[in-house]
C-alpha cells in the first residue's frame, strides 16, 4: 500500500522553479532518504510534504488522503529538525506534550504517550529538565520524541544528525534504524550525508536541481548508478572516471591508448554500440596482490600518494592519463614511489554516454 | 649550547606580566575620567544647589557644598510650587505623567510586538510593503503631523460621542495623548520586534506549526517567553521617551492634565517673582528621576536586549 504520494509537485519561488513536476510514491513502513548536495531542493520537498510551504501545483496524499490544502498539524506527520527546534522555555515534558495539548488530547492519554516515548528513547530522567541543560544528542532524542508522541504514520526528518559530532552521529544513526525497525512507520529522511543515506534507507532518492535523478535501493544506487552525477555523488572516496570511447564491437573501452575489456557488461539500454563515453570504476573494485592475474584488466602503476585510514589505505596514482584512486587493505605497507600491479574487471564498472551522461 | 634565558635573568613562564602605567592606559582612563567629569559636574551643581537656601545661593559660589543642608526646596517643588492657578507643585504633573505613561507603554508594546511577530513569521502578500510604509512613518517630521492629528482627535472624539451617546473628548484629554504616543511609538517598536523575531530560528516556528499551534498560541506560549530581553528594551525606550516628551504633552493636553515635563517648564520659566534656583533644580531632578531609575535598574538587561535584537536584520 502506498502511504505518501507526491504527484506532479511544482514549487516556484518568484521566478525560480525550485521543484519541477516531481513524482514520488512511498510505501507504508518504508524508509526513504532524500539525498543531494545543498540547494538541490530536498529540504524544500520535505517542507512541502509537511505543509510548511505552499506549493504552486500538484497534489500530496498521505495515508490515502489528499492533504494538499491541509495544515501541517492535520496531515498526520511528525517532524524532526536539524537544529532540534525545542521550545527553550519549556521542560522536556512540556516539549513532548505541547502538540498533544494543542490537539486537546485528554491529560491521562498525554501522560501515557509521553511516558511511552520517553521509555523508547530512554529520556525518562530528563523529563523535568530544560533543553538548555541537555547535550546535543539528548536534545535530538527529545526532538524525535516530540514526533513520536503524536502517534502518526509518517515521520519527516530534516537533516536530524547534521548538528552532532561524528561519534554521536554514528550512535544516533543506529538508534534511528532500530527505532524504524521497532515502529515500522514510514520515514522520509533528508540528508546530504551519503553514509546516513546508505545505512538507513530502504530506498534512496538522489536529487539535483529539483529533479529526482534516481530512486532505488542503496545497493542499486551504488552498483548501478543511473547517470554520471549519481555515480560521482555516491561513494567515498569518489568513483574514478575514464574519458574515452566504446569500440565498434562494444567489447572494449579505449581511453588514452589503454584498452579495457567490457566482456560481460550488463547494458541497460540495449547492446553497447561504438560511441564516446565515460567509464566509472569504484576505488573498492581494484584488486592487488596474488589474485591480480585473474582480472580481465591489469596494469603496472607507480604509487604517488598514500592515505592510511586505519581500516584501509587509499592509494593515489595515474592510470590512462587520469588521476586514479583505489583502496587497499589497512595492513598494506606501501610508500609513495612503489611500483604495483593492479587489476579490476571493467565490466563491473559503469558506462555513461558522453553527452547525455546517462547509464549505458 | 646557548642559554635561552633573557638578559633580565627571568625565564618567561606562565602568565605574561602586564604593565599598568602604559601610554595606552593613561590615555584611556584619562579620557574616561574627563568625560565622566564633564557629565557629572552639572549633576553635582544641581544636587548642591537644590540643597541650599536662597541666601546661600545668592553668594554665587556655584560649586561649593551647602553650609546648611535643607530639603525645603524639594518639598516645595513637589507639593507647593505654582503653575498658573494650581499651587500643588509637581505632584500633579507626576501623576498625570504616570496616567499617560502606563497605558501608552502597555498598549504600544502590545500592538508593536504582535506587529513584529506577524511581519517576521507570518509573512503575507504585501507584508514587506506594509512594513516599509510603517518604517517610513518614523522619518516624517512630527511637526507635519501635529495639526492633522489635532483635527483627527477632535473629530473622532465627536464621532465616538455620537455613537456612545456620552460626551467623549479625545483632544485635550489624557487618552488622546495615549493614542498619540501609541501611534508614534509604532514604527520603531515594530522594527525592534520584527528584527528580534526574525532572529528566532525558523525551525522553531515550523515545529510549533507541526505541533498544531496557531497564531496566538505560538505568540503567547513560544515567542513571548523568548522575547523578554527585547520587551525590556522596548519598555525602556517607551518609558523614557514618553516620560521625557514635551511637545505632544503641551499640544494635546490642558493645564489640568499637563504631564510633568510641561509643568516643570512652567515652574522654571515662570516670569513672576524671584527665581528660586534651588526649587528649580529640585523640580528638574524630580522630573528626571523616573528615566534615571529605569536606566540604573535595567542597565544590564538593556544592553543584552539591544545586542540580541541587533544580530539579524
Descriptive labels:
heterodimer; A: 360 residues; alpha+beta; Rossmann fold; OB fold (Dihydrolipoamide Acetyltransferase, E2P); 21 strands; globular; B: 313 residues; mainly alpha; flat; disordered C terminus
Describe the structure.
The complex is a heterodimer of chains A (360) and B (313). Chain A is an alpha+beta fold and 360 residues long. Chain A is built from eight helices and 21 strands. Chain A folds into two domains: 2-231, P-loop containing nucleotide triphosphate hydrolases (Rossmann fold), CATH 3.40.50.300; 239-353, Beta Barrel (OB fold (Dihydrolipoamide Acetyltransferase, E2P)). In chain A, strands 6-7-8-3-9-10 form a six-stranded mixed beta sheet, with helices on both faces. A five-stranded antiparallel beta sheet of chain A has the order 13-12-11-14-21. Chain A is globular. The radius of gyration of chain B is 27 Å and the shape is flat. Among the domains of chain B are: 23-70, no CATH class; 91-144 and 172-258 and 285-309, MetI-like fold, CATH 1.10.3720. With 313 residues, chain B is mainly α. Chain B starts with 22 loop residues before the first helix and ends with a helix. The longest helix of chain B is centred in the last third of the chain and has 33 residues, at 277-309. Chain B has helices at residues 23-50, 54-58, 72-79, 91-121, 127-136, 142-164, 174-198, 202-210, 215-226, 228-244, 247-252, 260-268, 277-309. Chain B has 13 helices and no strands. At the A-B interface, strand 6 and helix 2 of A face helix 8 and helix 9 of B.
SS-derived structural category of chain B: mainly alpha
**Helical residue percent band of chain B:** 55-70%
How many E-type strands of chain B? 0
CATH architecture of the largest domain in chain A: 3-Layer(aba) Sandwich
Shape of chain A, please? globular
Number of strands of chain A: 21
Order of secondary-structure elements of chain B: HHHHHHHHHHHHH
By CATH's scheme, which homologous superfamily of the largest domain in chain A applies?
A: P-loop containing nucleotide triphosphate hydrolases
| CATH architectural category of the domain at 91-144 and 172-258 and 285-309 in chain B | Orthogonal Bundle
Number of helical elements of chain B: 13
Q: What is the CATH topology assignment of the domain at 91-144 and 172-258 and 285-309 in chain B?
A: MetI-like fold
Average pLDDT of chain A works out at 89
CATH homologous superfamily name of the domain at 91-144 and 172-258 and 285-309 in chain B?
MetI-like
C-alpha Rg of chain B, in Å? 27 Å
Shape of chain B: flat
Please state roughly what percent of the residues of chain A sit in beta strands, choosing from under 5%, 5-15%, 15-25%, 25-35%, 35-45% or over 45%.
25-35%
